[in-house]
Write a structure and sequence with these properties.
- About 35% of the residues lie in helices and about 25% in strands.
- It is an alpha/beta fold.
- Strands 3-2-1-4-5-6 form a 6-stranded parallel beta sheet, with helices on both faces.
């Protein structure tokens, strides 16, 4: 098969944009040319000559010679405008903007269908790990039961440094910012939102389930405290921010992003620093484990490069699980065993929300409960006391067809 020649219009020349430029210079077999690079700030010092840059998006979008648009900017709203226009003009698109994809997934599906052009976004999920392509091609007929993993390199770096170097969370976060792994306002990563956007994308390719970002519950690591760190060290556990999606026997999907205690026997225990790790479980192949760098210029650029290579063969996502008609409903009727740290003065209120309490502890100010609780009650806690509570997953979820709605009606958490 003859490979298609690509003439690229590149939006953004930050860390990943420059990384892509570098790897393309070293990739001789790929028939690609970057014709135009559009950037926002004309006075910013850049690594290559000014003659390569433009400041008008129409220099790419209105150029009939450019057949591929690569979008690598931070602004999700501006990115959607670029991607929407490019697709409507018949240009293939490669993007790494997981927030943009998650917030406009239905619209992007429709645009691809209407204009018959591909949109690829491997770099939006786990950087160097080709998880989307594997879900599309390898697991299209195998009965996928679950997918879980570390999908955010920034938080994994922070947690790894906290445990390996015994430094504070704040110090580890500062180091992540200094190394370019976290932004000056890192809440997108540390609050679990980035992981939620990635999980939303994975759900569509893994199970044929299309949801909105608000449909996925997330707790990040931004309120991690010394009690849970001390507990983890005492029990020889690590804390990881893990995205989860499970299908029960009735075909209902439960999905959420929560910090999780990881024992030494678990695959994710060895996934440290900026690495990501994904576990899939299927009916036929059982458990498979993917690991690779999840942050940094070259790992992310390598995923963009892979998508560009695929486009030279006219590859596109077939969304096989969507076409197969799975469209499984989202299920919140599950129970989790959790470690729940909170202010001591609210212990009596909180303990009533647990169906089972295995262990509890309190000092003069703080306390924790280990026990079984519904996901709905966890949401109730977070809504009422988001600034003072912290929840970690202790074990895999237990599925239940019944929601404990009575407790939600009976108890008011805090004054």
């Amino acid at each position: 098969m003859n490979r298609k020649k690509l003439k690229i219009g590149l939006f953004g020349f930050g860390c990943v944009g420059y990384g892509l430029y570098q790897v393309l210079q070293k990739t001789n077999g790929l028939k690609t040319t970057i014709k135009t690079i559009v950037v926002k700030h004309p006075d910013k010092t850049r690594e290559i000559d000014k003659e390569h840059f433009s400041f008008d998006k129409n220099d790419i979008l209105e150029d009939p010679e450019i057949n591929v648009v690569v979008e690598l900017i931070d602004d999700a709203d501006a990115a959607f405008d670029i991607v929407k226009t490019a697709l409507s003009k018949g240009k293939a698109v490669v993007t790494a903007n997981k927030k943009m994809i998650a917030e406009h997934f239905d619209e992007l599906l429709e645009l691809q269908s209407t204009y018959n052009v591909p949109l690829l976004y491997e770099a939006a999920c786990c950087a160097s790990i080709p998880i989307i392509r594997n879900l599309e091609e390898y697991y299209d007929n195998d009965l996928l039961e679950s997918i879980e993993g570390i999908v955010n390199g920034s938080t994994n770096y922070i947690l790894s440094k906290t445990f390996s170097d015994h430094i504070s969370y704040d110090t580890a976060l500062l180091q992540a910012q200094q190394n370019g792994y976290a932004e000056s306002n890192p809440i997108l990563d540390t609050g679990g939102f980035d992981a939620k956007y990635k999980l939303l994308i994975l759900l569509a390719h893994a199970f044929g389930l299309v949801v909105r970002p608000d449909d996925i519950f997330n707790i990040g690591i931004n309120r991690i405290g010394e009690i849970e760190l001390a507990y983890a060290r005492e029990k020889k556990l690590k804390i990881k921010l893990v995205a989860h999606a499970y299908k029960n026997s009735k075909g209902l999907i439960s999905c959420f992003v929560l910090p999780k205690f990881i024992p030494q026997t678990h695959h994710l225990h060895t996934v440290d620093d900026v690495f990501n790790g994904i576990l899939t479980k299927t009916s036929f192949a059982d458990v498979q484990f993917f690991v690779g760098k999840g942050a940094g210029a070259h790992p992310t650029a390598s995923a963009v490069l892979s998508d560009l290579s695929a486009l030279t063969y006219d590859y596109r996502y077939e969304y096989k699980k969507l076409i197969q008609g799975e469209y499984l409903e989202h299920d919140e009727a599950i129970f989790l065993k959790v470690f729940f740290r909170h202010q001591k003065r609210y212990s009596k209120d909180y303990i009533q929300l647990f169906d089972e309490v295995n262990e509890s502890y309190a000092n003069s100010e703080n306390a924790y409960i280990i026990g079984r609780i519904s996901l709905e009650n966890i949401k109730t806690i977070q809504t009422a006391d988001a600034d003072n509570s912290f929840i970690l997953l202790e074990t895999l979820p237990e599925f239940s067809p019944i929601l404990n709605t009575q407790k939600l009606k009976t108890y008011e958490l805090i004054e």
